[in-house]
Amino acid sequence: MASPTAQAKGASDGFKAERVLATQPNVKEALGSYFGKHIAEIQVISGKKSDVVVYFDDCTKTTAQIKNFTNPNMAKWPFHQTNRRWLKDLPPEFQGIASHICLGQPKNRGRLKGLTRQEFLSPYILPTAVDSKNLARLILLGPVGEVDWAPQHMILTVMTDGKIQRLWAEPMVSFMAAVDSAMYPTPQLGEEGTSLFLCPEISMQRKGGDKGAASADQIQFKLYFDGETIARHNYQELMLV
Predict the structure, then answer these.
(1) pTM (predicted TM-score)
(2) Which regions of the chain does DSSP assign to beta strands (E)?
């Protein structure tokens, strides 16, 4: 797992990548070719599941989530936080298992063992693959009522010295189909015993950090990208400098 410093740097690099993607001429050209339309503007947004809105000359638009990396070697790409929420805001099917596994006191990990950091909000049950698929949609696409801000594309970038050097894109429909196809029958326990994997790409665990503030007990969802997971997807490389 990346250190807190590495996590902070990754987040900072991600914010920079969104701004660079919106202004770097060859990136806009590559994306225009991919979409088959001339791009009028790329607008960076915040507080939504999408990171950018792409506006075209024909008055249409599309949205995208951006994941940036500083190392071109996929085998060394770090995770990306994609969502975090309080235990009470998880679907009921996940509240019990998250209480026991993700929020269990360090010496009392595991099913029905000891005290957790928060009260149990639901019995310990094992969510199904369908439950996990629904949760994946919630954390990646947002609530049903916010479809206008759901990302329609997943874009990966590699940025070096303030410039995007490599660029990939995949329609979110295709991305979600690949995630669905790899969903575990029930969430799988991570190696350290404090995280749960819905599928190889998506994990959930206690956020931690925050200098002991209450927000440290939020449930954090992470996305993993590496050669193995990407091989199951339909990414198109748009640019290699």
Answers:
(1) 0.84
(2) 39-44, 52-56, 61-69, 80-85, 153-160, 163-171, 188-189, 195-199, 202-206, 219-223, 236-240
